[in-house]
Each structure stands twice: as C-alpha cells, then as structure tokens.
Amino acid sequence: MKRNVDIVVISDVHLGTYGCKAYELLRYLNSIQPKTLILNGDIIDIWQFKKSYFPQSHLKVIKKILSFATKDTEVYYITGNHDEMFRKFTDFELGSLKVCDKLCLSLDENKVWIFHGDVFDASVHHSKWIAKLGGKGYDLLIIINNIVNWFLLKMRKEKYSFSKKIKDNVKKAVKFIGDFELTASELAIDNKYDFVICGHIHQPQMRKVTTNNGSCMYLNSGDWVENLTALEYNDHKWDLFYYSENEKELKEDISEDLTDINHADLLKIVTNFK
C-alpha cells in the first residue's frame, strides 16, 4: 500500500555517479504517491557523468520520475549546479513536468520559496574547475566510504561516514553550512517568505531562523548519496523522511512496470546533455 503525500522534495541524487544510492531511492519512490514531486537540483550529475557508468537502477529512477509525470503527479525539476545544462530549458513544460530555476508556492497561507542553493557558492560561479575537482574528490571519498562500510557490515559493526566526520569537525565546513543556512533564511525573511527550502549542501535540516527583520523556517532536503533523506508535506506540516529509519517498512521488490520507456533511448537522451 502506497502512502499518499501532498508534496515530496528530493535533491542531490547525483545519478551517474558511484555514490548515488539509486536502489534505495527507488524503494522510497515506489512506496509513495505524491500529488507534487519537487526535484530540487543535482538529480542527474552532468559534471561527473560517464557513458561507461549509468546502471539500470539509475535509469529506473528517471523512468519512475517520468512515470509520475505521466500520471497524476505534478513534477517540478529545479535546476542545480551539477545539472546546470538543463537551465537552457528553464520554463519548459511537458505535460505535468516543468523545468524551472526556482519555485514559489502558497501553502495554508504561508509563502514557500524553493531553490537549489548553489547561488550562494562562490566556487561554483568563479572557480568552476575547483568546484568540479572537489566534486570528483567527494565522489572518490564516497566510493572508499562504501567499501569500508561493506567490511564494517560484514563484521556486524555500524556504518561510518567520512564526509559527516569532516563536516562536523572541520571549522570551515561547519561555518560554511551555518553561513549558507543563515544567508538563505535572511533572504527569505527580507522577501516575506515563511519557508525557504534548499538542497546543495547535503545537510538535511528543519529549523527556525530569527533575525532583526523577522523569522522563517529553513528546510533542506539533504541528499541521496549519504543521508538518504526527503522532505514531505502532509496534513499541513513538513517532515524529514530518513530512509535509515524507515528501511524495514519499505518493500524489497523495486521492480515496476515501466516498460513503456526504453532503457536505450533514455540513456541516449541523458548522454546528449553531456
């Protein structure tokens, strides 16, 4: 039985990279029936894309998203920095699928502002080659981390996150995350938004931010590389979905009838964006 959800927000899936947890994302997507699905940037990682690596599970995620759009779900694809190639298709609409750079919603008389968040990252705009190099380094770190965690699980020990350890202990990383959240919140408050929703920094979060000019709720949907999280809006409130906390409730069988979309044709479309 699928859960009915009013709005689901996911970001930073990074399809086409070794770190992407496509299988887990498929299990989650197959467990829900959202009225609105918001893809908040970095869904397909064009930066790290390799023709030699785009497995079936990654293609199935795209198929699943398209299947939502062909049924009763509104799908918004908000562009991020890793999928910036799609920005030339801003305002493109195909049925229930819409490509945009940001999204503004009114929910229960609250104004909601949704965007990826790379606009705050100077390295993306002024030193793109550094940002891309950092992306490759992050991808390698995740590969090594996955190998280590495989051995830890075999030894019946808890998983370990190298990236989280770095973010939690390196002062510059902690400061960057804090600055990011504050900057997004200050802009939202100045523009009279009640909620601001971002992705980009792979840090799931829900917290109230108050400044001299007012307050707003800052939300971040996290990612599907490490944290495996999504934002859900239902019954007039936002919640963070953690895959790790709900894994046992999700069915193992992720196969669905998506045969109307050809794998080879889909891979050809993705390849053409590189």
Automatic annotation (TrEMBL):
Q: Kindly give the Pfam families that the UniProt entry links to this protein.
A: Metallophos
Q: List this protein's GO terms for biological process.
A: lipid A biosynthetic process
Does the record bear Cell membrane in its keywords? yes
Domain (Calcineurin-like phosphoesterase): residue spans on this chain: 7-204
Q: Which GO terms describe its cellular component?
A: membrane
Keyword entries, A-Z = Cell inner membrane, Cell membrane, Manganese, Membrane, Metal-binding
Q: Which GO terms describe its molecular function?
A: metal ion binding; UDP-2,3-diacylglucosamine hydrolase activity
Record PANTHER family = BLL8164 PROTEIN, UDP-2,3-DIACYLGLUCOSAMINE HYDROLASE-RELATED
Q: What is this protein called?
A: UDP-2,3-diacylglucosamine pyrophosphatase LpxH
